[in-house]
Each structure stands twice: as structure tokens, then as C-alpha cells.
Amino acid sequence: MIGLTKPRKSIIGLVLAGEIESIGKNVKRFKTGDQVYGLTGFGLGAYAEYKCMQETDSMHGCLALKPTNITYEEATVAAYGGLLALQYLEKGNIQRGQKVLIYGASGTSGTTAVQLAKYFGAEVTGVCSTTNLELVKSLGADTVIDYTKKDSVNLLIGQYDFILDAVGKIKTSELKKACKKALAPGGKYVSIDDGSLKLQSERLTLLKELIEAGHFKPVIDRCYPLEEIVEAHRYVGKGHKKGGVVITVGHNNNKT
Ligand SMILES: NC(=O)c1ccc[n+]([C@@H]2O[C@H](COP(=O)([O-])OP(=O)(O)OC[C@H]3O[C@@H](n4cnc5c(N)ncnc54)[C@H](OP(=O)(O)O)[C@@H]3O)[C@@H](O)[C@H]2O)c1
User: Mean of the per-residue pLDDT values for the chain?
Assistant: First the structure.
């Protein structure tokens, strides 16, 4: 997808938030000056001051009006974490009072999934490492389990109706292996790596409503200016970001 011998696209970057600079004559959903957020899909090209996009959803992206009560930086984290978390939580068809376990509750999709599962009325257990226990609790998790602790497997007392692995199939632990066996009869285990991310502006609009109503607040780990993008990627590559990492582009940092 990215290119075998060299990048297909010289400008990468999948997620963006910014202001509409101008529109084509047939555009209906947006007007100049609108603040928007979204994903660029296979089109990539978000690491730039300007990006040309279609108003309709496609493999080349989806765009919606940005939540009014968060910054552009927060909006990028909300778009990526929110689309991932919503799509995979929906597979659980979570009902009020059900027990839900989010494995990898401290990453971009994990911090979002904890908050959205609470919003859906679940009793949420978040799994993360020692340094992130307080963060995950502060997002509303009823119980937190430290996957780095030797006895953590014994804390899996619940019979979970739904388990979301929010860190992907490469990252694992003894606890992750054990939690697959802690499903309630009829329960479901889903990995965020099962299938591909759907680019749907309808879901971005739903996330906007949830954010504006105070049900979900995106978590930012760090922001880097575009000039320090190599450092930003090195940091993300270490695999321990808490929430999202954001690149700021353009004058007055008003685009990300
Ligand atoms: N389906 C799709 O189309 C699609 C699209 C994009 C991404 N994804 C998948 O989504 C995954 C998650 O992306 P993301 O950006 O939300 O995650 P992320 O932010 O990169 O996850 C980082 C978090 O993972 C935690 N972590 C690292 N190793 C862990 C382990 N062994 N057990 C539990 N937690 C661990 C880290 O916490 P500690 O520092 O505390 O360990 C850190 O907070 C990606 O890796 C990718 O596989 C899928």
C-alpha cells in the first residue's frame, strides 16, 4: 500500500484537521472557512499545509465538520482514534451493564474505546502498563489491570461479554493470551487488526456530537511542529504513546 521500493506518495500522513480554504463549484457539504477534520485514506498527503479532498467518502478519505469545543490537535486524535474505536466497538453491539475489556487502553484507539464503551453503558476494564493506570482510570474505566505485573492474569475474574484488543496483533503479553479465555458464554473477542478501517464521515459527525456533549475527550500525548516530524515518528515507533501524537503545520499552528 505504501510502496515496495520507495513511497508511492512523497507526502504521507493520514489524518488531518484544518480550515477549508476554498471549494469547488459543486460542493454542497462545506463552505470556505469551515473547520473540518478527517482522514485522507489512500490519498495520504496530510503532512502538508494544503490538502485537496472530495466532499464524498471514498478510499481517498472522509471529512466532516470538526467538534466546536476541541482544538485542531485534539480533532486529529479524535478522528483517528474515534473512527477506529467506534468501528470495532460496534462489532460488540454493547448493551448497558455488559462487561467489556479494552486491551491496550492507553493508546489512541484504546483511550477512545474506554470512553465510548462507558458511554454505551458498559462496565469497563482497561488493560495497560503501570505508568498509564491513572490515565485509564481517569477516562472512566471501572477496573484497571497492569499487564506488566506477574500476577495480572489472576485479576481476570470477569466473564467478559466483549473484549477489544486495541493495540493490534503484534503487541501481546501473558495477560492478552489469558483474556481470550475469559469470555462469557456468547461473548466476543475482536482485534483492531481484523479488517480495514472504514472511512465514514457519518461516524465523524457522530463523534462530533459525542465530543460536544462531553462524552468523549481525545487524549494527546505530544505535539511536534512539522520540522520535527522525524522525531515524532521515532517517538511513535517506540510503541508507547499515550493517546495520540500530533504534527502541527502552517501559520499560527492553526492547521494540523
Ligand atoms: N484495522 C485497521 O484498518 C487499522 C488502522 C490503523 C491502525 N490499526 C491497528 O491499531 C493499532 C493501534 O493503533 P493505536 O495508534 O491506537 O495504538 P497505539 O497508540 O500505537 O498504542 C500504543 C499503546 O500501546 C500500549 N502497548 C504497547 N505494547 C503493549 C502490550 N504488549 N500490551 C498492551 N498495551 C501495549 C502502549 O502502552 P504501554 O506504554 O503502557 O505499554 C501505548 O499506550 C495499530 O497498532 C494497528 O495494528 C488498525
Answer: 95
Confidence of residue 8 (pLDDT cuts 50, 70, 90): confident
> Nearest-5° angle of CA 237, CA 63, CA 225?
40
Strands (E) in 72-203, as ranges, are 99-103, 123-128, 143-146, 160-165, 183-191
CA dist 244 and 17 (Å) reads 14
The residue whose grid cell reads 497492569 is 146
Ligand 1 pocket test, pick from 192, 196, 220, 234 with the greatest ligand atom count within 8 Å of Cβ, gives 192
Task: Read off φ and ψ for residue 207, nearest 5 degrees.
Answer: -60, -40
Cell of 79: 478522528
Inter-axis angle of helices 72-90 and 201-212, to 10 degrees? 110
79 Cα: distance to centroid of ligand 1 (angstroms):
16
**181: its cell numbers:** 479465555
Q: How far apart are CA 159 and CA 125, in angstroms?
A: 11
Q: Which residues line ligand 1 (CB under 6 A)?
A: 84, 104, 106-109, 128-129, 132, 147, 167-168, 171-173, 192-193, 195-197, 239-242
> Could you tell me what percentage of the chain is helix, strand and coil, using 3-state DSSP and rounding each to the nearest 5?
30, 25, 45
Closest to 101 in 3D by CA, of 31, 158, 63: 158
Place of cell 499545509: 49
Q: Whose CA is nearest to atom 13 of ligand 1?
A: 167
Q: Cell numbers at residue 218, please? A: 481525545
Rg (alpha carbons) of the chain, rounded to whole number: 19
Mean pLDDT of 189-208: 97
